[in-house]
Protein backbone atom coordinates (compact mmCIF):
# COMPACT_ATOMS: atom_id res chain seq x y z
CA UNK A 1 0.00 0.00 0.00
CA UNK A 2 1.42 3.28 -1.08
CA UNK A 3 0.33 6.74 -0.14
CA UNK A 4 -1.29 5.81 3.09
CA UNK A 5 0.14 7.99 5.86
CA UNK A 6 -1.98 7.79 8.90
CA UNK A 7 -4.00 4.77 9.69
CA UNK A 8 -7.73 5.00 9.43
CA UNK A 9 -7.72 7.89 6.98
CA UNK A 10 -6.81 7.51 3.33
CA UNK A 11 -6.05 10.59 1.31
CA UNK A 12 -8.83 11.60 -1.10
CA UNK A 13 -6.36 11.54 -3.99
CA UNK A 14 -5.46 7.98 -3.15
CA UNK A 15 -9.11 6.99 -3.06
CA UNK A 16 -9.69 8.57 -6.44
CA UNK A 17 -6.64 6.81 -7.90
CA UNK A 18 -7.78 3.56 -6.38
CA UNK A 19 -11.25 3.99 -7.82
CA UNK A 20 -9.80 4.80 -11.23
CA UNK A 21 -7.47 1.83 -11.15
CA UNK A 22 -10.31 -0.41 -10.10
CA UNK A 23 -12.46 0.96 -12.91
CA UNK A 24 -9.72 0.29 -15.45
CA UNK A 25 -9.09 -3.24 -14.37
CA UNK A 26 -12.79 -4.06 -14.38
CA UNK A 27 -13.30 -2.37 -17.73
CA UNK A 28 -10.48 -4.30 -19.37
CA UNK A 29 -11.62 -7.51 -17.83
CA UNK A 30 -15.16 -7.03 -19.07
CA UNK A 31 -13.90 -6.13 -22.53
CA UNK A 32 -11.66 -9.16 -22.56
CA UNK A 33 -14.54 -11.40 -21.56
CA UNK A 34 -16.75 -9.89 -24.22
CA UNK A 35 -14.15 -10.25 -26.94
CA UNK A 36 -12.81 -13.66 -26.21
CA UNK A 37 -15.95 -14.99 -24.53
CA UNK A 38 -14.06 -18.05 -23.45
CA UNK A 39 -12.17 -20.67 -23.64
CA UNK A 40 -9.78 -22.76 -25.61
CA UNK A 41 -11.60 -25.63 -27.19
CA UNK A 42 -10.05 -28.66 -28.65
CA UNK A 43 -6.52 -29.81 -28.20
CA UNK A 44 -6.28 -32.08 -31.20
CA UNK A 45 -3.41 -31.79 -33.64
CA UNK A 46 -5.33 -29.52 -35.95
CA UNK A 47 -7.49 -27.46 -33.70
CA UNK A 48 -7.29 -23.76 -33.09
CA UNK A 49 -8.63 -22.18 -30.01
CA UNK A 50 -12.19 -21.16 -30.44
CA UNK A 51 -13.22 -17.57 -30.69
CA UNK A 52 -16.69 -17.33 -29.34
CA UNK A 53 -18.33 -14.06 -30.07
CA UNK A 54 -21.45 -13.19 -28.20
CA UNK A 55 -23.97 -12.37 -30.89
CA UNK A 56 -25.62 -9.74 -28.71
CA UNK A 57 -22.48 -7.64 -28.47
CA UNK A 58 -21.99 -5.29 -31.37
CA UNK A 59 -18.70 -3.88 -32.46
CA UNK A 60 -18.64 -0.14 -31.75
CA UNK A 61 -19.77 1.83 -34.81
CA UNK A 62 -16.52 3.80 -35.18
CA UNK A 63 -14.39 0.65 -35.20
CA UNK A 64 -16.54 -0.85 -37.92
CA UNK A 65 -16.32 2.22 -40.12
CA UNK A 66 -12.53 2.25 -40.17
CA UNK A 67 -12.20 -1.25 -41.55
CA UNK A 68 -11.78 -1.65 -45.24
CA UNK A 69 -14.52 -3.62 -46.85
CA UNK A 70 -13.81 -7.22 -47.63
CA UNK A 71 -16.46 -8.35 -50.04
CA UNK A 72 -17.59 -11.95 -50.22
CA UNK A 73 -19.04 -13.77 -53.19
CA UNK A 74 -22.55 -15.14 -52.74
CA UNK A 75 -22.71 -18.75 -53.94
CA UNK A 76 -26.18 -20.22 -54.15
CA UNK A 77 -26.44 -23.96 -54.90
CA UNK A 78 -29.61 -24.81 -56.78
CA UNK A 79 -31.35 -27.14 -59.20
CA UNK A 80 -33.53 -26.48 -62.23
CA UNK A 81 -36.68 -27.71 -60.48
CA UNK A 82 -39.46 -25.07 -60.39
CA UNK A 83 -39.44 -25.32 -56.60
CA UNK A 84 -35.76 -24.31 -56.47
CA UNK A 85 -36.16 -21.71 -59.23
CA UNK A 86 -38.83 -19.53 -57.66
CA UNK A 87 -36.91 -19.41 -54.39
CA UNK A 88 -33.71 -18.45 -56.22
CA UNK A 89 -35.49 -15.59 -57.98
CA UNK A 90 -36.70 -14.12 -54.69
CA UNK A 91 -33.29 -14.68 -53.13
CA UNK A 92 -31.51 -12.89 -55.99
CA UNK A 93 -33.99 -10.00 -55.94
CA UNK A 94 -33.15 -9.26 -52.29
CA UNK A 95 -29.43 -9.71 -52.87
CA UNK A 96 -29.59 -6.92 -55.48
CA UNK A 97 -31.49 -4.66 -53.10
CA UNK A 98 -29.15 -5.20 -50.13
CA UNK A 99 -25.86 -5.24 -52.00
CA UNK A 100 -25.38 -1.50 -52.22
CA UNK A 101 -26.53 -0.55 -48.72
CA UNK A 102 -23.82 0.91 -46.47
CA UNK A 103 -23.07 -2.03 -44.16
CA UNK A 104 -23.19 -4.65 -46.86
CA UNK A 105 -19.98 -6.39 -47.89
CA UNK A 106 -21.63 -8.36 -50.66
CA UNK A 107 -19.63 -8.87 -53.81
CA UNK A 108 -20.65 -10.89 -56.84
CA UNK A 109 -23.33 -13.56 -57.04
CA UNK A 110 -23.38 -17.00 -58.64
CA UNK A 111 -26.14 -19.53 -58.76
CA UNK A 112 -24.25 -22.82 -58.91
CA UNK A 113 -26.72 -24.89 -60.86
CA UNK A 114 -26.02 -28.57 -60.30
CA UNK A 115 -28.46 -29.96 -62.81
CA UNK A 116 -25.84 -30.36 -65.53
CA UNK A 117 -27.59 -28.14 -68.07
CA UNK A 118 -28.73 -24.54 -68.43
CA UNK A 119 -32.29 -23.61 -67.51
CA UNK A 120 -34.60 -20.70 -68.31
CA UNK A 121 -33.16 -18.37 -65.67
CA UNK A 122 -29.69 -18.01 -67.17
CA UNK A 123 -30.40 -14.42 -68.28
CA UNK A 124 -32.03 -13.39 -65.03
CA UNK A 125 -29.51 -14.73 -62.49
CA UNK A 126 -25.71 -15.06 -62.94
CA UNK A 127 -25.28 -18.81 -63.11
CA UNK A 128 -22.61 -21.44 -63.56
CA UNK A 129 -23.76 -24.89 -64.61
CA UNK A 130 -21.98 -27.83 -62.97
CA UNK A 131 -22.54 -31.56 -63.15
CA UNK A 132 -24.69 -33.54 -60.77
CA UNK A 133 -23.20 -36.64 -59.17
CA UNK A 134 -23.22 -39.66 -61.48
CA UNK A 135 -26.52 -41.51 -61.58
CA UNK A 136 -27.37 -43.31 -58.40
CA UNK A 137 -24.53 -41.94 -56.28
CA UNK A 138 -26.76 -39.52 -54.38
CA UNK A 139 -29.21 -42.37 -53.58
CA UNK A 140 -32.11 -40.00 -53.88
CA UNK A 141 -30.62 -37.56 -51.39
CA UNK A 142 -30.30 -34.63 -53.73
CA UNK A 143 -28.38 -32.28 -51.43
CA UNK A 144 -25.38 -34.65 -51.63
CA UNK A 145 -24.80 -32.77 -54.88
CA UNK A 146 -23.90 -29.61 -52.98
CA UNK A 147 -20.33 -30.47 -52.00
CA UNK A 148 -19.62 -31.76 -55.51
CA UNK A 149 -21.09 -28.55 -56.92
CA UNK A 150 -18.74 -26.46 -54.76
CA UNK A 151 -15.72 -28.55 -55.75
CA UNK A 152 -16.45 -27.99 -59.44
CA UNK A 153 -17.32 -24.30 -59.08
CA UNK A 154 -14.13 -23.56 -57.13
CA UNK A 155 -12.07 -25.33 -59.78
CA UNK A 156 -13.72 -23.77 -62.82
CA UNK A 157 -14.77 -20.27 -61.83
CA UNK A 158 -12.69 -17.14 -61.54
CA UNK A 159 -13.82 -15.67 -58.24
CA UNK A 160 -12.64 -12.15 -57.56
CA UNK A 161 -13.57 -12.03 -53.90
CA UNK A 162 -11.42 -13.61 -51.24
CA UNK A 163 -14.43 -14.70 -49.20
CA UNK A 164 -17.48 -16.80 -50.02
CA UNK A 165 -20.96 -16.95 -48.54
CA UNK A 166 -22.59 -20.34 -49.04
CA UNK A 167 -26.29 -19.63 -49.35
CA UNK A 168 -29.48 -21.53 -50.10
CA UNK A 169 -32.57 -20.71 -52.15
CA UNK A 170 -34.83 -20.26 -49.13
CA UNK A 171 -32.68 -17.46 -47.73
CA UNK A 172 -33.86 -13.84 -47.90
CA UNK A 173 -31.42 -11.06 -47.01
CA UNK A 174 -33.32 -8.88 -44.57
CA UNK A 175 -30.44 -6.62 -43.47
CA UNK A 176 -27.21 -5.77 -45.31
CA UNK A 177 -24.81 -8.57 -44.41
CA UNK A 178 -21.21 -7.67 -43.55
CA UNK A 179 -18.33 -10.10 -43.82
CA UNK A 180 -18.83 -11.83 -40.47
CA UNK A 181 -15.81 -14.06 -40.86
CA UNK A 182 -12.51 -13.23 -39.35
CA UNK A 183 -9.42 -14.38 -41.23
CA UNK A 184 -8.99 -18.07 -40.40
CA UNK A 185 -12.31 -18.18 -38.58
CA UNK A 186 -15.29 -18.54 -40.89
CA UNK A 187 -18.68 -17.47 -39.55
CA UNK A 188 -21.52 -19.97 -39.28
CA UNK A 189 -25.01 -20.25 -37.88
CA UNK A 190 -25.33 -22.76 -35.00
CA UNK A 191 -28.20 -25.21 -35.56
CA UNK A 192 -29.74 -26.58 -32.37
CA UNK A 193 -30.32 -29.98 -33.97
CA UNK A 194 -26.70 -30.59 -34.97
CA UNK A 195 -25.31 -32.25 -31.85
CA UNK A 196 -21.83 -33.70 -32.32
CA UNK A 197 -21.44 -34.45 -28.60
CA UNK A 198 -24.51 -36.72 -28.67
CA UNK A 199 -23.36 -38.69 -31.71
CA UNK A 200 -19.81 -39.52 -30.72
CA UNK A 201 -20.01 -43.20 -31.64
CA UNK A 202 -21.10 -42.60 -35.23
CA UNK A 203 -18.90 -39.56 -35.73
CA UNK A 204 -15.77 -41.42 -34.67
CA UNK A 205 -16.00 -43.45 -37.89
CA UNK A 206 -15.28 -40.23 -39.78
CA UNK A 207 -13.41 -38.20 -37.18
CA UNK A 208 -10.63 -40.35 -35.68
CA UNK A 209 -9.42 -39.89 -32.10
CA UNK A 210 -6.19 -38.17 -33.13
CA UNK A 211 -8.17 -35.15 -34.28
CA UNK A 212 -9.32 -34.56 -30.74
CA UNK A 213 -12.70 -34.57 -29.01
CA UNK A 214 -15.85 -34.65 -31.14
CA UNK A 215 -16.68 -31.27 -29.63
CA UNK A 216 -14.13 -29.92 -32.13
CA UNK A 217 -16.92 -30.49 -34.64
CA UNK A 218 -19.06 -27.37 -34.84
CA UNK A 219 -22.88 -27.59 -34.56
CA UNK A 220 -23.33 -26.24 -38.08
CA UNK A 221 -23.99 -27.04 -41.72
CA UNK A 222 -22.34 -25.52 -44.77
CA UNK A 223 -24.92 -22.79 -45.03
CA UNK A 224 -25.03 -20.06 -44.06
CA UNK A 225 -21.25 -19.84 -43.77
CA UNK A 226 -18.88 -17.02 -44.77
CA UNK A 227 -15.44 -18.48 -45.32
CA UNK A 228 -12.10 -17.57 -46.84
CA UNK A 229 -11.82 -19.08 -50.31
CA UNK A 230 -8.59 -20.99 -49.65
CA UNK A 231 -10.16 -22.67 -46.62
CA UNK A 232 -13.20 -23.74 -48.61
CA UNK A 233 -10.94 -25.06 -51.36
CA UNK A 234 -9.37 -27.37 -48.78
CA UNK A 235 -12.62 -28.35 -47.10
CA UNK A 236 -14.91 -28.93 -50.12
CA UNK A 237 -13.27 -32.14 -51.48
CA UNK A 238 -13.14 -33.61 -47.97
CA UNK A 239 -16.76 -32.57 -47.42
CA UNK A 240 -17.72 -34.45 -50.55
CA UNK A 241 -15.81 -37.57 -49.52
CA UNK A 242 -17.18 -37.51 -45.98
CA UNK A 243 -20.76 -37.03 -47.15
CA UNK A 244 -20.51 -39.96 -49.58
CA UNK A 245 -18.92 -42.16 -46.91
CA UNK A 246 -21.63 -41.22 -44.43
CA UNK A 247 -24.32 -41.99 -47.00
CA UNK A 248 -22.77 -45.40 -47.63
CA UNK A 249 -22.66 -46.18 -43.92
CA UNK A 250 -26.10 -47.52 -42.91
CA UNK A 251 -25.76 -46.41 -39.30
CA UNK A 252 -24.69 -42.85 -40.16
CA UNK A 253 -27.35 -42.65 -42.86
CA UNK A 254 -30.02 -43.66 -40.37
CA UNK A 255 -28.87 -41.49 -37.47
CA UNK A 256 -28.19 -38.32 -39.50
CA UNK A 257 -31.03 -38.69 -42.01
CA UNK A 258 -31.88 -35.39 -43.70
CA UNK A 259 -29.08 -33.51 -42.00
CA UNK A 260 -26.31 -35.91 -43.07
CA UNK A 261 -24.72 -33.44 -45.44
CA UNK A 262 -24.65 -30.80 -42.70
CA UNK A 263 -22.78 -33.20 -40.40
CA UNK A 264 -20.46 -33.99 -43.31
CA UNK A 265 -19.50 -30.31 -43.69
CA UNK A 266 -19.04 -29.92 -39.94
CA UNK A 267 -16.77 -32.99 -39.82
CA UNK A 268 -14.82 -32.02 -42.94
CA UNK A 269 -14.03 -28.55 -41.62
CA UNK A 270 -12.97 -29.98 -38.26
CA UNK A 271 -10.70 -32.50 -40.04
CA UNK A 272 -8.91 -29.47 -41.50
CA UNK A 273 -8.70 -27.79 -38.09
CA UNK A 274 -11.04 -25.01 -39.16
CA UNK A 275 -13.40 -23.80 -36.48
CA UNK A 276 -16.23 -21.36 -37.00
CA UNK A 277 -17.34 -18.31 -35.12
CA UNK A 278 -20.92 -19.18 -34.21
CA UNK A 279 -23.25 -16.29 -35.03
CA UNK A 280 -26.82 -16.66 -33.83
CA UNK A 281 -27.61 -13.36 -35.51
CA UNK A 282 -26.65 -14.78 -38.91
CA UNK A 283 -30.25 -15.79 -39.56
CA UNK A 284 -33.71 -16.18 -38.13
CA UNK A 285 -36.24 -18.91 -38.73
CA UNK A 286 -39.93 -18.04 -38.68
CA UNK A 287 -42.22 -18.97 -37.08
CA UNK A 288 -39.90 -19.79 -34.15
CA UNK A 289 -37.98 -16.53 -34.17
CA UNK A 290 -40.47 -13.74 -33.71
CA UNK A 291 -38.50 -10.62 -34.54
CA UNK A 292 -36.09 -9.51 -37.23
CA UNK A 293 -33.98 -7.23 -35.02
CA UNK A 294 -30.46 -6.99 -36.37
CA UNK A 295 -30.37 -10.43 -37.90
CA UNK A 296 -29.32 -10.82 -41.50
CA UNK A 297 -31.11 -13.67 -43.26
CA UNK A 298 -34.66 -14.97 -43.07
CA UNK A 299 -34.62 -18.74 -43.57
CA UNK A 300 -38.14 -19.86 -44.47
CA UNK A 301 -37.76 -23.58 -44.17
CA UNK A 302 -40.54 -24.08 -41.62
CA UNK A 303 -44.21 -23.76 -42.49
CA UNK A 304 -46.03 -20.85 -40.88
CA UNK A 305 -49.57 -21.85 -39.89
CA UNK A 306 -51.89 -19.61 -37.88
CA UNK A 307 -55.56 -19.46 -37.02
CA UNK A 308 -57.45 -16.22 -37.60
CA UNK A 309 -56.77 -15.17 -34.00
CA UNK A 310 -53.09 -15.07 -34.92
CA UNK A 311 -52.22 -18.19 -32.90
CA UNK A 312 -49.57 -20.59 -34.20
CA UNK A 313 -51.05 -23.97 -35.12
CA UNK A 314 -47.73 -25.59 -36.02
CA UNK A 315 -48.12 -29.07 -37.45
CA UNK A 316 -51.79 -28.42 -38.21
CA UNK A 317 -52.76 -26.63 -41.39
CA UNK A 318 -53.67 -23.11 -40.41
CA UNK A 319 -56.56 -20.96 -41.62
CA UNK A 320 -53.76 -18.67 -42.77
CA UNK A 321 -50.52 -20.22 -43.92
CA UNK A 322 -47.31 -19.67 -45.78
CA UNK A 323 -45.27 -22.78 -46.41
CA UNK A 324 -42.73 -23.12 -49.20
CA UNK A 325 -43.74 -26.75 -49.52
CA UNK A 326 -47.20 -25.71 -50.71
CA UNK A 327 -45.44 -24.64 -53.91
CA UNK A 328 -43.44 -27.68 -54.96
CA UNK A 329 -44.49 -27.55 -58.60
CA UNK A 330 -44.42 -23.85 -59.31
CA UNK A 331 -44.20 -20.40 -57.79
CA UNK A 332 -46.60 -19.04 -55.20
CA UNK A 333 -48.96 -16.39 -56.57
CA UNK A 334 -48.15 -12.71 -56.43
CA UNK A 335 -49.61 -10.68 -53.57
CA UNK A 336 -50.11 -13.40 -50.96
CA UNK A 337 -52.58 -12.22 -48.31
CA UNK A 338 -50.96 -10.84 -45.20
CA UNK A 339 -51.36 -12.88 -42.03
CA UNK A 340 -54.10 -12.02 -39.50
CA UNK A 341 -53.37 -9.55 -36.69
CA UNK A 342 -51.27 -10.96 -33.87
CA UNK A 343 -48.88 -12.92 -36.08
CA UNK A 344 -45.23 -12.13 -35.25
CA UNK A 345 -43.19 -9.54 -37.12
CA UNK A 346 -40.87 -12.18 -38.60
CA UNK A 347 -43.73 -13.87 -40.48
CA UNK A 348 -45.33 -10.59 -41.59
CA UNK A 349 -41.98 -9.34 -42.90
CA UNK A 350 -41.35 -12.62 -44.71
CA UNK A 351 -44.65 -12.39 -46.57
CA UNK A 352 -44.15 -8.71 -47.39
CA UNK A 353 -40.68 -9.43 -48.75
CA UNK A 354 -41.92 -12.34 -50.86
CA UNK A 355 -44.70 -10.09 -52.18
CA UNK A 356 -42.34 -7.24 -52.99
CA UNK A 357 -40.04 -9.57 -54.90
CA UNK A 358 -42.80 -11.29 -56.87
CA UNK A 359 -44.42 -7.94 -57.73
CA UNK A 360 -41.14 -6.72 -59.24
CA UNK A 361 -39.81 -9.83 -60.96
CA UNK A 362 -41.00 -9.79 -64.59
CA UNK A 363 -42.95 -12.81 -65.78
CA UNK A 364 -43.25 -14.10 -62.25
CA UNK A 365 -45.67 -16.94 -62.88
CA UNK A 366 -45.25 -17.43 -66.59
CA UNK A 367 -41.69 -18.82 -66.84
C1 LIG B 1 -11.63 -38.69 -51.71
O1 LIG B 1 -11.80 -40.07 -51.96
C2 LIG B 1 -11.12 -40.54 -53.09
C3 LIG B 1 -11.51 -41.99 -53.30
O2 LIG B 1 -11.53 -42.69 -52.10
C4 LIG B 1 -9.61 -40.35 -52.88
O3 LIG B 1 -8.92 -40.78 -54.01
C5 LIG B 1 -9.34 -38.89 -52.63
O4 LIG B 1 -7.95 -38.68 -52.33
C6 LIG B 1 -10.17 -38.35 -51.50
N1 LIG B 1 -9.98 -36.93 -51.40
C7 LIG B 1 -9.98 -36.27 -50.25
C8 LIG B 1 -9.76 -34.81 -50.32
O5 LIG B 1 -10.18 -36.81 -49.18
C1 LIG C 1 -53.07 -7.28 -52.98
O1 LIG C 1 -54.20 -7.89 -52.37
C2 LIG C 1 -54.96 -7.03 -51.55
C3 LIG C 1 -56.09 -7.83 -50.92
O2 LIG C 1 -55.55 -8.96 -50.29
C4 LIG C 1 -55.50 -5.86 -52.37
O3 LIG C 1 -56.17 -4.97 -51.53
C5 LIG C 1 -54.32 -5.15 -53.06
O4 LIG C 1 -54.82 -4.14 -53.91
C6 LIG C 1 -53.49 -6.13 -53.87
N1 LIG C 1 -52.30 -5.46 -54.38
C7 LIG C 1 -51.85 -5.62 -55.63
C8 LIG C 1 -50.65 -4.84 -55.99
O5 LIG C 1 -52.41 -6.35 -56.43
C1 LIG D 1 -17.75 -6.58 -40.15
C2 LIG D 1 -16.71 -7.64 -40.08
O1 LIG D 1 -16.70 -8.42 -39.16
N1 LIG D 1 -15.84 -7.66 -41.06
C3 LIG D 1 -14.77 -8.63 -41.16
C4 LIG D 1 -14.55 -9.02 -42.61
O2 LIG D 1 -13.38 -9.78 -42.75
C5 LIG D 1 -12.19 -9.19 -42.24
C6 LIG D 1 -11.03 -10.06 -42.56
O3 LIG D 1 -11.15 -11.30 -41.98
C7 LIG D 1 -12.33 -8.95 -40.76
O4 LIG D 1 -11.17 -8.36 -40.26
C8 LIG D 1 -13.52 -8.06 -40.53
O5 LIG D 1 -13.71 -7.89 -39.16
TrEMBL record:
It is a single-pass membrane protein. Its main location: membrane. Coiled coil: none annotated. The keyword Glycosyltransferase applies. Residues 72-365 form the Hydroxyproline O-arabinosyltransferase-like domain. GO terms for molecular function: glycosyltransferase activity. It holds the Pfam family HPAT. One of its GO terms (cellular component) is membrane. The chain crosses the membrane at residues 12-34. It comes from the Eukaryota. Keywords: Glycosyltransferase, Membrane, Transferase, Transmembrane, Transmembrane helix. This is Hydroxyproline O-arabinosyltransferase 3-like. It comes from Cucurbita maxima (Pumpkin). The lineage of its organism: Eukaryota, Viridiplantae, Streptophyta, Embryophyta, Tracheophyta.
Amino acid sequence: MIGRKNTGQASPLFLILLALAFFFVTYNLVIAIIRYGSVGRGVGPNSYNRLSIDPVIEMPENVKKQETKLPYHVALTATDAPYSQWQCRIMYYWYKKMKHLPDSEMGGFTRVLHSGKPDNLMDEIPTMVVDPLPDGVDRGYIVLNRPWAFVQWLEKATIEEEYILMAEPDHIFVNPLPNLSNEGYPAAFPFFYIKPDQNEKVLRKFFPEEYGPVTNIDPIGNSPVIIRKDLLEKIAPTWMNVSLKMKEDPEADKVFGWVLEMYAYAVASALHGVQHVLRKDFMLQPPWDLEIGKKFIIHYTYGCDYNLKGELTYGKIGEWRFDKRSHLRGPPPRNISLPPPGVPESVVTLVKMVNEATANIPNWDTT
